Amino acid sequence: MSYEYLDHGADIGLEVRSDSLEGLFSEAGRSIFSLMVDVENISSDEPLELKLDEQNLEDLLYEWLSELLSLSNLNGKVYGKFPKLTIRKKDSNYSLEAVARGENIDPKKHELGTEVKAVTYQGLEINETEYGWRCRFVVDV
Fold first, then answer.
1. Over 46-65, what HEC string results?
2. What domains can be seen in the chain, in order of their start residue?
3. Consecutive H or E run containing 99
4. Per-residue pLDDT tens digits of the chain, which is 141 residues long
5. Is residue 26 within 8 Å of residue 141, measured between CB atoms?
6. SS3 sequence of 82-98
7. What strand order describes the sheet that includes 12-18?
8. How far apart, in Å, do the first and last CA atoms of the chain sit?
9. What is the DSSP string of 14-81?
């Protein structure tokens, strides 16, 4: 699994890769928080349970990242681990159930990086490749 930053003017584009679809969503979550803090320094004290349903994988990824970001801003927390993340396809919809683990943002512990304001639909795509899964998306900073 990996992610890299893509040059995109005032916004930041990210490309995430993983062997599995669930790993892709987990790594995408880590990638937005890695812009804000060093995700390796996030304790996994407090669990947050999320359940989402969308019509396609792109919308599910957008809602997943937007919900994580919104809850982070609302609760003053950062998330760095996603020990449970399941994606299922039922009929023509996709569902996601996940547990995100994180802690309160603490400037004494976390070196603050770039504030991520929002996830955008610009350039958002998910593909299954011969090497696994890949997604691209842009965040507003």
1. EEEEEEEEECCHHHHHHHHH
2. 2-7+19-140 (3.55.10.10)
3. strand 93-104
4. 777 776 656 789 999 999 999 999 999 999 999 999 988 888 888 799 999 999 999 999 999 999 999 999 999 999 999 999 999 999 989 999 999 999 999 888 888 888 899 999 999 999 999 999 999 999 988
5. no
6. EEEEEEEEECCEEEEEE
7. 2-6, 12-18, 132-140, 118-129
8. 24
9. EEEEESSHHHHHHHHHHHHHHHHS-GGG----EEEEEEEEESSHHHHHHHHHHHHHHHHHHHTEEEEE
Q: Say which residue the tokens 């892709």 belong to.
A: 24
- C-alpha 33/C-alpha 78 separation (Å) is 7
Rg of the chain's alpha carbons, rounded to an integer?
A: 14
